[in-house]
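Question thread 4412

I'm putting together a teaching handout and wanted feedback from people who do this every day. The idea is simple: show students a protein as raw sequence, then show them the structure tokens that encode its fold, then repeat with a second protein so they can compare. Below is the first pair exactly as I plan to print it.
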Amino acid sequence: MEARNNNENALWVFGYGSLCWYPGFEYRRSAVGHIRGFSRRFWQGNTTHRGTTEKPGRVATLVEEKEGVVHGRAFQVQDTTALPYLNNRECTLGGYITTITTFYSREGNRNFPVVVYIATNKNEHWLGEAPLHNIATQIFECSGPSGHNVEYLLRLAEFMHRYLPEVHDEHLFTLELLVRSRIKEENMCLTTLMGDRDFNVYLEDIEIDVRDEDNNVPANNAGINLRENSFQFILQTSDETLRCLKR
């Protein structure tokens, strides 16, 4: 299966979940933008990365919706190792299938075919629709070999806030608020939940280090979600309140 940009004769893959902040494969460049005809939902179960067989986590998938728009990140694949890696990560382990759709760049000056990985209700990991409070609770309670399910959700939401601040994803951001509220209520250590790891985001050959950027953002930019020490700032909670629970 190939999706090619006629001008660049290249294969592009669209990410709308953890690929946005951790692709895990080599690529030539990436760009933010959107696809149409889908909506992002946390309806797919996960037992290999963000959950276990006994307690599956919840990760993002796409559901068809005529007027839907999903914002994310497109990657121009660099070599032949990316697709086998993605097929194992998304299809073999995750239960996703592939389809092709059109990507529209944020600037509105480019559109081209992209490969998209989606999950359907026909796969064994499918959890389906549920009240948002229930989904948030499941995310809060689950973790797997790749880390806590909370990290998956909050890093995705933070990517959207930071690089697509004009976009409002009601499903994603409502889950973010519910999970952050639960963290505050339970007096959990956010650093522990997030894994205390650094991730670099490359957009159009420009490297942006999220942590370094956070430390240099003026306080008056908080309203557009470019926040100093952002994970704690959103909760409006002191460092003492976010102390780690003793285990």
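The second pair follows. I'd like the answer to focus on this one:
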Amino acid sequence: MATAPAPPLLLLLVLAFLGAGAAGWQTKTVVFLLAGQSNMGGRGGATSGRGTSWDGVVPPECRPSPRILRLSPELRWEEAREPLHAGIDAGNVVGIGPGMPFAHAVLRSRRLPAHAAVGLVPCAQGATAIAAWSRGTHLYRRMLARARAALAQCPSPSPTPKGECHLAALLWYQGEADTISRRDADLYTARMEALVRDVRHDLNMPNLLVIQVGLATGQGKFVDLVRDAQKRVNLPNVKYVDAKGLPVANDYTHLTTPAQVKLGNMLASSYLATL
């Protein structure tokens, strides 16, 4: 029986080169911190009645994907599922937030490499004023610890064992609690600028992108003052996305599920515009 001819030397060299490249190829995970208070934590579908449960409705824009990962409360990467802030936004009923629709929109844009994943690091805590996020507080330390753990345990959504993580942005939606006191509203700009500077310094990322969401609602009467303060933040690479006008639930405070999907898309557009 005739034997098959040996492959040409050039073909062998090409196959060896490709094999070496595959072994060293790195899968990229683009990581985003999600921080702030309840509207970042997500209350879509969790505001009716006494607020004791989430309705469980997951729109298509929020469904799981093997290319969307979440850092769990135990600091492990896992496939992201709603509610994204389960186990993080302690003591609150959580539902749909902007994180999952944001991740889907970023992947849908095809601006990332073909095999890239989006890693979401939920950090939000409901009913917290910005002072509760200043350097040295529990929430600040937790956010930085989760950011560092996310980068140290870089996941790979493909069969290749190696991964490369990049912290791309902090998505920040907070300020409703600062509308109660005139003093807190007046201090908001300075406190937000200090927070951005501290996070960038402590993560050694002086140009970290920050996208803040302009308030749609508030817990007090100084909503417009806080919104104006948000717009006055004057630091490089800080973007502003306005939630005003998005549908609000019957509690007059929290965005509905469709509003959160819309906000996620708006945040994605702001991030993609920087690429």
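Top answer:
Good format. For the second protein you could add a caption like this: The longest strand covers residues 163-173. Helices lie at 9-24, 38-41, 99-108, 138-152, 182-202, 223-231, 257-272.
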